[in-house]
Amino acid sequence: MYKLYLIFNLFLGCYSTNEKLKEVYSWKKLDFVFPSVAVRESALKSEDYIVENNLPLGLDIWEDKLFVTVPRWKSGVASTLNYIHLNDSSSSPLLTPYPSWEYNQLSTDDENATSHDNIISVFRVHVDKCDRLWVMDTGLADILGTASQIKPPTILVFDLNTDTLLRKHSFKDSDIKAKSFFANIVPDVVPENCNTSFAYIPDLGEYGLIVYDWLNDDSWRVEHHYFHFDPLYGNYHVGGVNFQWTDGVFGLALSAADKINGSRTVYFHALSSTNEFVVSNEVLKNKNASSNSYYDYKLLGSRGENTQATSSYYDETSEVLFYTQVNRNGIGCWNSNKPFTPENQALITSDNETFIFPNDLKVRNGNLWVLTDKMPVFIYKTLDSEEINYRIFMASVEDAIKNTTCEIA
């Protein structure tokens, strides 16, 4: 029976088309809102802006803003943290730098970088329930080229109501190892008391997790065997590209708070793995115990073959965990009221044209948002600038899970 399930789902991954999520935006190539035409022309001439080197990766939504990140994989990225006005009628809108053009200017001048708190390179961002935008700045530019570490990995938190910087926290030497790479951030927030917030930042390169304590402006490193990649699941076939990655812990999602004690379940997985694990947030938040709690981490189960996932998000209303499916060009889900088995995982959409490498997703106001970007083609080959390469989709959670095993009973 299990083999039949795998065959059926692999069949879906090869031949399905996206029928559930509506394409909201799409781009052949990215362009930005520059301060002026002259500044844009100067950036093109100096190669501070190389059009084909700009690839969107992360997204989140707050009111009328759709945030889109553009990491500095290569040189020539105009702005790494940006937004789109959701009321923009264009199907391929320009990206507006956030919170300003100046913040997103790459600078190797230490004095200038300090004065402007320059944002160097961002992969994912997260809006919390206190109207704050959490940004994990890797501090690393031209990752696939000269790989210049302009500043330490740094957490930046912005007040979305005023577009001002609330907090800047650079990681300590003890947080970082030789191959550390921080591409995600997930805040753990109690809306009634925003000052007791924490955030979890996975280290996919050195198989650890950084915990940040807002109240004490402190961070510490947690390590566990479950943060490592699975050597059996480091092989990928995406967009006609075969490659191997050893990425460890990457996707994190938080359950709703327990009604009795307020604790949350932290769901996590390595990118190069098909297993999902859990740990209580109370373990992570305890600085003195978090590295001595081996048995508090549990294996939740396997999603099944070929189900490597970059990003995940737990929707508190439906109690469904959504996750990307990069090897299957689609989006998966699991209803947390059911056992975590391959049979209870659903491939809610899949398309080999429009869903090549779903990279990030979020649920906001009852809607599921997804960004796809053909990233392996961008890294290992060359994107065709005459084709649509980047897309953002949206569907209501209700429609997304309808007629699947994730549907609310």
Q: Return the domain count.
A: 1
Radius of gyration: 20 Å
Note the overall shape.
globular
Q: How many distinct helices?
A: 6
Strand content: 35-45%
Provide the low-confidence segments as ranges. Answer: 1-15, 110-115
CATH architecture term:
6 Propeller
Distance between the termini: 24 Å
Q: Remind me, CATH topology?
A: Neuraminidase
Average residue pLDDT: 93
CATH class category label: Mainly Beta
Query: How does the major sheet shape up?
Result: 4 strands, antiparallel
Pfam family, one: MRJP
Subcellular location: Secreted
Keywords: Secreted
Family: Belongs to the major royal jelly protein family.
Helices, strands, pairings?
Layout: H1 2-15, E1 22-27, H2 37-46, E2 59-62, E3 65-69, E4 81-85, E5 96-97, H3 110-116, E6 122-127, E7 132-137, E8 140-141, E9 148-149, E10 154-159, E11 164-170, E12 186-188, E13 198-203, E14 208-213, E15 218-223, E16 235-238, E17 241-244, E18 249-254, E19 265-270, E20 275-280, H4 281-285, E21 298-302, E22 312-315, E23 320-325, E24 330-335, E25 345-350, E26 358-364, E27 367-372, H5 375-380, E28 390-396, H6 397-401
Antiparallel strand pairs: 1-28, 2-3, 3-4, 4-5, 6-7, 7-10, 8-9, 10-11, 12-13, 13-14, 14-15, 16-17, 18-19, 19-20, 20-21, 22-23, 23-24, 24-25, 26-27, 27-28
Structure description:
This protein has 409 residues and is mostly beta strands. It has a single domain (2-401), classed as Neuraminidase, CATH 2.120.10. It has six helices and 28 strands. β10 and β11 form a beta hairpin.
